Amino acid sequence: MFTWLLVAIVAGIVVGAVWPGFGSDLKPLADGFIKLIKMLIAPIIFCTVVLGIAHVGDMRSVGRIGVKALIYFEAVTTFALLFGLVVGNIVKPGNGFDINPETLATGAKAVADKTQDAELPHTVDFLLNIIPTSALSAFAENELLQVLFFAVLFGLGLAKVGEKGPPIVLETIDQLSHIFFTVIGWIMKLAPLGAFGAMAYIVGEYGLSSLSSYGKLIACCYLAAVLFIVVLGVIVRIFAGVNLWKFIVYIKDELFVALGTASTEVVLPRIMTKLSNAGCSRTTTGLVVPTGYSFNLDGATLYLSICILFLAQALGVELSFGEQITAVLVLMLTSKGMAGVPGSSFLALSATVSAIGHGSIPVAAVALLLGADRIMDSMRVSVNLLGNCVATFVVANWEGQLDKERMRKVLAGEPVEPLTDVDPMTGEEEVAAEQAGSKV
User: Fold this and answer.
1) Does 132 reside within a domain?
2) What is the pLDDT of residue 440?
3) Residue 308's closest CA among 350, 339, 340, 275?
4) Chain segment 137-158, per-residue pLDDT in tens
5) Domain around 381
6) Does the residue 418 lie in any domain?
7) Is the residue at 434 inside a domain?
8) Segment Disordered: which positions (predicted)?
9) pLDDT in tens, 56-109
């Protein structure tokens, strides 16, 4: 898989650069692959979380995992924002642009077209939206946080009923889980095709010229990403005893799929499988990973804080320390509602520019980033993905649900026993659904 993904990504770049029109027309390959994965994400999260909670059957444990995950998310994303400001102040990626604000008259319309006139939800609306209108609507609209919320309640209820004997419902969900992971195994064989289409489209549509025009900003963001990944490596080594480099090698296939398709959602089922196989409990993995997709966007927050400084520097505006801190505080709120909103980074930046209240930076200036935004996708998805994996290891270890011996063997490439579950009806051990699906 790794070799085919590498070939597909390189081929996509070549096709997009040499035949840009043809490359742009290959977008349906990527879209089709992403839709195939997304149609199974909600049911897989539901089955994984319900089975994990039903087997543990401890409401307090579930609550502790959730609280610890949110504390970790807030701490790390805030650090990412501050880290981005430090890098942006040192590198100064916007210096040399010398943009005249009067030339940005059409910027607001360009941003509106990019975001499809969408709006980021207010904090209260965002929190209320976690509660689905109905259980079915959460699945129909593919709202992962709503599915997770319903799955937690359903799993706790199932655990309570299970005290009187293993219900047939648990057996049904267990079998469905095996089916979904098996189908995911089939779909993942199309990953090179999806990555090829995505890269051909990005290069064909946006061209390589933006690399020269926004070279300093792109270099700044990728430098910050590399340094931040080093920080993540230190965090996961200290708080979970995990060697991040070995883990990156372990998930290299999933990482390349995410990079090639510019989406972390497409590898969510496979990442959950890999984390469980590496010693994280199913309960912790099922709760932390989906929640992190909305609350722990490390790569996106890192990018946003650098872009705020880029816009100010491009317009020749010196932001005071207080204005930069204001930007961080606003981004701490707006970044939490970004998942699933079209052009969310532009909306978050627009809201932040407005909140700073600096008249010399018009909101339309956000349009300056349109030419470089897609080039940043690889940076954002790689940091987002690794950030959520690190969070899972840290919270699992924090909660005492990390099998360190298994983790050490898996990351060292040593053979381990397949993960097993207890059949809820017979009481006998069987191969876990995640392991069954990974063999396809």
Assistant:
1) yes
2) 38
3) 350
4) 888 888 888 888 898 888 888 8
5) 1-412
6) no
7) no
8) 415-440
9) 666 778 888 889 998 999 999 999 999 999 999 998 887 776 665 555 544 455
Number of domains in the chain: 1
Q: Is the pTM of this model over 0.85?
A: no
Q: How many angstroms separate the CA atoms of 393 and 399, rounded?
A: 10
Round the average pLDDT of the chain to a whole number and report it: 80
Q: What CATH code is carried by the domain that includes residue 308?
A: 1.10.3860.10
Q: How confident is the model at residue 424 (pLDDT cuts 50, 70, 90)?
A: very low
